[in-house]
Amino acid sequence: MNFLPKLLQGIAFIPTIVNSIEGLFGSHSGEQKKESAISFVAAALQLTEAVSNREIVDEIKFKEGLGKIIDGTVACLNASSWSRVDIKK
Fold first, then answer.
1. Count of beta carbons in the 10 Å neighbourhood of residue 67
2. Model confidence over 3-39: pLDDT tens digits?
């Protein structure tokens, strides 16, 4: 299964993706930023291709899982010194 290494690599970049989206869409709602992050990760993982190749059998649950990873990443970043950066200037 070639998808697993791609998935793990994609997950490794989630903190960077979250940070970038916060910088780009800081004034948007948390849900909008989360959807943007999910879309970006899905594109990076070539989600449509993985679904058509049956590497992902339930796209909705997969995206829910990505959302949970993103929520956890945001919680960790907010609990760290990263959250002290005033990006609302």
1. 16
2. 888 888 888 989 999 989 988 998 999 999 999 999 9
Q: What is the residue type of 38?
A: I
Q: Which residue, 33, 34, 39, 41, is CA-closest to 14?
A: 41
Residue 66 · residue 42 · CB < 8 Å: yes
Three-state secondary-structure class, residue 1: coil
The rounded distance, in Å, linking the Cα atoms of 63 and 14 is 14
- Confidence (pTM): 0.79
CB 47 within 8 A of CB 59: yes
As a whole number of angstroms, the distance between CA 69 and CA 83 comes to 18
CA max distance for the chain:
45
**Distance in angstroms (rounded) separating the CA atoms of residues 65 and 46:** 16
